[in-house]
């Protein structure tokens, strides 16, 4: 019982002390209790308003971040995972041909057939060149020339045709005339015909050419990308 009275007494004294303190503050500052109450209410309302605006702004910011992340994710899925394969340039564009001596020639397409050589497929010399190698249309093709100008084995680069290796001759071929080998008459008319153009002297021949030498030229590893381009075109 005594303990309850003691705590009641202490509580009343605390309340009186706070009341006296409030009265003293009002007397000194001139601020009334009602004014303090209004300040406190204004502060509470202002704090709540700022808190709501902050939460609203934070929500918008988070939403914007998620939108940007989603957009970035969408863009990333549109990027192809397939490797980019560079297109192999044409042989004419892959090498600086100006480093070689340039010659102006008149080049005519020809075949191994009767219309060009007077030989039929039954002839023992059909398709065999003066050098002894068989006619060939490849990356390095057999061509005919005036052997006093371009000896057997001479390598020329002929724009639009490729490499030509002198393997044959002809009685009608004089000076800077060339005959370029094609497999069919249709190929001659469709792909070449007769042209005057500049060719490039890659290597002067020594008067001989073998099947093995021609095979090595056409199977040079560094040139296979260009050979495949030609063979693909040929198959089409």
Automatic annotation (TrEMBL):
**What region holds the 3D domain?**
141-202
Pfam families documented for this protein: 3D
List the signal peptide residues: 1-33
Q: Which domain of life is it from?
A: Bacteria
Its keywords, alphabetically, are: Signal
Is Ribonucleoprotein set as a keyword in this record?
no
InterPro entries the UniProt entry points to: 3D_dom, Resuscitation_pf_RpfB, RlpA-like_sf
Name-wise, this protein is: 3D domain-containing protein
Species: Bacillus seohaeanensis
């Amino acid at each position: 019982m005594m303990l309850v009275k003691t705590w009641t007494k202490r509580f009343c004294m605390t309340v009186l002390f706070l009341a006296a303190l409030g009265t003293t503050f009002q007397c000194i500052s001139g601020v009334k209790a009602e004014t303090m109450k209004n300040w406190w209410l204004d502060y509470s309302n202002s704090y709540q308003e700022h808190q709501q605006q902050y939460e609203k702004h934070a929500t918008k910011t988070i939403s914007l971040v998620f939108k940007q992340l989603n957009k970035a994710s969408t863009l990333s899925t549109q990027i192809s995972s397939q490797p980019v394969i560079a297109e192999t340039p044409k042989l004419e564009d892959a090498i600086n041909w100006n480093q070689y001596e340039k010659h102006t020639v008149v080049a005519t397409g020809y075949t191994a057939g009767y219309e060009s050589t007077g030989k039929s497929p039954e002839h023992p010399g059909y398709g065999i060149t003066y050098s002894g190698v068989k006619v060939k249309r490849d990356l390095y093709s057999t061509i005919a020339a005036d052997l006093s100008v371009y000896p057997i084995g001479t390598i020329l680069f002929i724009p639009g045709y490729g490499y030509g290796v002198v393997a044959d001759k002809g009685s009608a071929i004089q000076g800077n005339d060339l005959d370029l080998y094609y497999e069919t008459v249709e190929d001659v008319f469709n792909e070449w015909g007769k042209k005057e153009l500049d060719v490039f002297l890659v290597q002067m021949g020594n008067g001989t050419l073998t099947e093995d030498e021609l095979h090595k030229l056409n199977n040079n590893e560094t040139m296979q990308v260009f050979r495949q381009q030609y063979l693909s075109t040929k198959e089409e």
